[in-house]
Amino acid sequence: MTGSLFSVNETGLDQKMLSPEEAVGKLQEQAELLDFEGESHVTVTKIALEYVVVISPDGQILVKPLWRFLPGENEDERNFLRQNILGIDAVTGELIWEERGNTL
Predict the structure, then answer these.
(1) Is 70 exceeded by the pLDDT of residue 40?
(2) What is the CATH number of domain 16-99?
(3) What is the 3-state secondary structure (H, E, C) of 34-90?
(4) Does the structure show a pLDDT above 70 at 37?
């Protein structure tokens, strides 16, 4: 696991975050929503707590904590698939599965 230490009070997060084990459970519950383009399974070899920018239903731009599951058998495969965001919102347990472009 990788990440940084931070204070929940300083970031304004007022809800309990899911543990990595709880996030895996949420991912398993929602697995039927995933489309791996013909693949019957995907290997995840790394999990990281990251922050992702999302747009809320009312148009607000939010930064949310995310348990990110990095698909790939090794570092090369993980780097190749890095633009694919496969994760669980660390507060709500919502599945986030999308491809993001390379932006600066």
Answers:
(1) no
(2) 3.10.450
(3) CCCCCCCCCCEEEEEEEEEEEECCCCCEEEEEEEEEEECCCHHHHHHCCCEEEEEEC
(4) no
